[in-house]
Amino acid sequence: MIGARWTRLPARYPRVWRGIVVGTTFVIVLVGWEIFATTIYGGVIPLPTAGSTVEAFRELTEDGDLQAAALESLQVLLAGTIPGVILGIAFGLLIGAVRPLDTSLSPYLFAFYATPFPALIPIFILLFGLGIVGKGMIVFTLVVTTVLLQTVAGVKTVDARFIEAARSLGTSRARMLIDVQLPASLAFIIAGIRLAIGRALVGVVVAEFDTALSGLGALIFGYAGRLQLSNALVPALLFALTGIVLAIALRAAERRFERWRAVGA
Amino acid sequence: MIETTQEPPATVSTVGAPHPLVRFLGNKWVLRAVGLVAVLAVWELWFSNINPIFSAPPSKVAAKVPKVITSEEYLPALASTIRLFGLGYGIAIVIGVPLGLGIARSRLLDTAITPYLNAIYASPVPAIIPILTAILGFQLTAKVVVVVLLAVFPILINANQGAKSVDPTIIEVARSFRVREARLWRDVIVPSSLPYLLVGLRLGAARGMIGTAVAELYTSPDGLGYLIHRYGYRFEMDGMLVVVLTFTAISLVFSLSLGALEHHFERWRVKSQ
């Protein structure tokens, strides 16, 4: 750490101090926002405050609107993510292990990955419809390319000594893929799933804006259109919470499998 | 929290059987050409089996390219998209780099703020777009805010990690020579953080492009986003794809050039840790 001395935290009980500092930030931001929204900001549309957002949450859950919309979004997310992860890993292992496939296909996969994907959403909706199929296909495509490219990167960077050792024991190509390259790439694959879910959540919410028919995105769009911003903020926060929780969990898993990458670590 | 560049791959040497034909087929560019043909063939076959209204096989898209590019809306739309991206990305850099480096200079600030930066980075920011447009209107401001909100966090977080990676001994030495803060930033912190800053700039550009596309499609249609909608209303899938490919090209220019810079400055990364 490079900070000046006066800004350092006490050395004892670091976790407690950390908790206090992080909690204090939260309170400061909330109070600051409350003051801004109620007194300084003079706009016509009332800004959501902590109180009004909690109130909106209660209202939306009592109606059951929030639960119903969340279920719709979750269905889309799962329908696209599960096959996307499975096929992404499978093709990623194949392409990563077979050199000519990697050389011939990876540049185009990367170009597709680099495309700002919201631009593709209207095309997917034209092709596959406004329902769960269209949105599921968007999520699937985002997940499969992200996981695939990360798996390829993982397989290509497997420690050469693992491969040499397995080969000297007479391991077949197929066994090598399952028993050596897959476990050694697991940290990369999980990183891929983490990135993929981040993109998939954006994909779902934007697709739901586009169709404005179902799911949390439609709820946000509808309430914001009627200028009920607190009600619109509740589903947006639910999306954010989903992203944060999944990112933390997958990050922990990633660290856990990091040690499978190195020889004699 | 964030992906940083990996060490170069330790690849297994393949024992070659250099038959001339095999060597020809193994050439990088030959393989890439074969890959391109395969990708186009799958695309062509797939599109020949769906509703002909939406049909946009590569042959048709290629034929459409000159028509789209020479249409009188294309260049203004492209200019408007690049202006939005440039504005948002520029602001994100101006905010993100100094703030990220600065936060790392204070342990207290760092502890207080970084968990929230990581949290926002992990959440789907476009979810609040309808709320932003309700408050800020549908003009340029709302669009720029969307691009900044998407691009700024990877830049900030990577700058922060870069500053934390600076070797404390160097700072001690600099300080014992009574180097002033401004000089310390210029000569120690910024150069040492450069590899991280470049990772942040690359990821920020990618997300900024996503933000640009979302803003132009889902606030008030404008620029290339508007063109996508317009071709969409007329079911001209080939036209839509030409515009999407334009987005791809802009994105690739940034991604590849920043990637090359990153590669070049990789050796500046502080190794002692």
Supply database-style keywords:
heterodimer, A: 265 residues, mainly alpha, 80% helix, 0% strand, flat, B: 76% helix, disordered N terminus
Q: What's the oligomerization state?
A: heterodimer
Largest interface, counted by CB within 8 Å of the partner chain's CB:
A-B, 79 and 79 residues
Q: Could you name the ranges of chain B where pLDDT drops below 50 across 5 or more consecutive residues?
A: 1-13
- The Cα radius of gyration of chain A reads 23 Å
Tell me about this structure.
The complex is a heterodimer of chains A (about 260) and B (about 270). With about 260 residues, chain A is mainly alpha-helical. In chain A, about 80% of the residues lie in helices and about 0% in strands. In chain B, helix 4 packs parallel to helix 7, helix 4 (about 75-105) packs antiparallel against helix 9 (about 180-220) and helix 10 packs antiparallel against helix 11. Chain B is about 75% helix and about 0% strand. At the A-B interface, helix 1, helix 4, helix 5, helix 7 and helix 8 of A face helix 2, helix 5, helix 6, helix 9 and helix 10 of B.
In short:
By secondary structure, chain A is mainly α. Helix content of chain A is 80%, strand content 0%.
Task: Give a topology summary.
The complex is a heterodimer of chains A (265) and B (273).
Chain A: H1 14-40, H2 50-63, H3 65-97, H4 99-114, H5 121-128, H6 132-156, H7 160-168, H8 173-211, H9 215-225, H10 229-258
Chain B: H1 20-26, H2 28-47, H3 58-70, H4 74-104, H5 107-122, H6 129-136, H7 140-164, H8 168-176, H9 181-218, H10 223-233, H11 237-265
